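We close this part of the discussion by returning to an individual protein. The encoding preserves chain order, so positions in sequence and tokens coincide. The sequence in question and its structure tokens are set out directly beneath this paragraph:

===
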Amino acid sequence: MSNGVTVFRGVPFAVAERFRPPRVLPLHDLPPAGGPFGKPSAQIPDPLDYMWGERLGPGAEDCLNLNVYTPDVNGKLPVMVWLHGGAFIIGSGRWPWFDATRLVEEQQIVVVTINYRLGALGFLDLSELGEPDSGNHGLLDQIAALEWVKANIARFGGDPEAVTVAGQSAGGISVSCLLGSPRAKGLFRRAIAMSGPPALVRSREFARKITHRFLTAAGVSTFEQLTKLSLAEILTAQLRTLKQTDFVGEMVYGPTVGDSVLPEPPLHLVRTAADSGVSLLTGTTADEARLWTLYNPVLRVLPFGSLKKWLKSLGLSPAEVRAAYRQDRPDLGLGTLATGLAGDALFWMPHLRLAEAHPNTHLYLFRWRSPVLGGRLGSLHGVEIPLMFGSTRANGAVYMIGDADEAEPMSAIMRCVWGAFVRTGNPNCAAVPHWPAFDPATRPTMLLDVKPTLANDPLPAMRKVWNGLPFDGTRPSLQQLPRIKDVLAYLAVCAGVAVLGVVLVVVAVVMWLCLK
């Protein structure tokens, strides 16, 4: 027990054979508190493991375990089930950022952090090999965890009728999928989708294309051969598939549309399930895509011209897009305009569509800027996580949020808002001005910063310039997003032109000197 909070770590909630759906495990006896974390899902080590606070790879296949943080095992408190992010290829409920001790003690809620299968083991579509729901086994793992929580959380002091499912990035995408999935109906009353829109899902055609590449990389062709591969061989084939630059990088693995879990694109399912009674808190950070500048320094100076071809393919005018961003985001300079609009296409606009589709939604835009690297990272993807959990001193957090004491005012606001929503389904609390539910006519949006403000339709020009696109996962689809190879090709041409220009100048100077 720490600060009045009891932690139960590594509790198994389900088992699953390789490439098979999970089976929920019964809880016979309350496990001992304070034990070690369970194994994380099998994964490839990430270049930013130092920032996430723990090196998890290679992990294990026997990974379906969860952690429960409770302030009172005899209580009947609201519950938040946390789905971690990591592009569906990395992460775990044991990441230091997700230490919920402070949030739980202060807000008097129960927090459950879970693992689910990642990468090929969780999202390889094997429907052509006779496994119809295999492309969404990772989502089925999450559903199994929610079923376990509903059946057992009362023994840990939680209220099974007051469950909030929450997540960020891949975890937020998962929440967006579960909102409409018929397989998750009735398992939660509230949902928090942070920087995780319903648009970032795969079509069955795209998923099968990835599967063919994976099978080739693994040197197998049947389901039986797949089951006999070693874990190292599976991760090696996964890595080779991820490096295929004609795919969309990190988005190779993830939810697939076209089975019993997601029979339609998630946004369509959300509209169909509009009377579900689930309240939703959702939003993004202002500078989502700047996280990826830490993976690829070239993106720090990505020119706007590298995205012109892509914008035209979507039926948009690059000139009109540039003008809209200059009007609403004059802070975006030559090196950040392209990453700004890429982040909006991936996150902000799809979240607007989610807010438009789902009733009883509260929408936010997180604008607190990280002080790291002289502020160059802005309000990047993931920066709000340690602030929300109050884990500002966790391993690696300093690389995202800087000094914990300086981040404390923003953390206090986040804990207040998220705690209020988990308890009541409404984010209004003493830390923010009155925050009405989203209305498509007025578009009230809470701008989360050290001085939160409410704004109606805060980025109107940017919204309107994208307005012809549904952002529902079909248009634009993953296959319509900017290709890494196209961006690199554009940069190579620019570099070639620059070199040629220098050569011509040198030749001209030499000739002038010779003729002088």
Q: What stands out?
A: The two ends are 86 Å apart (CA to CA). The chain is about 35% helix and 15% strand.
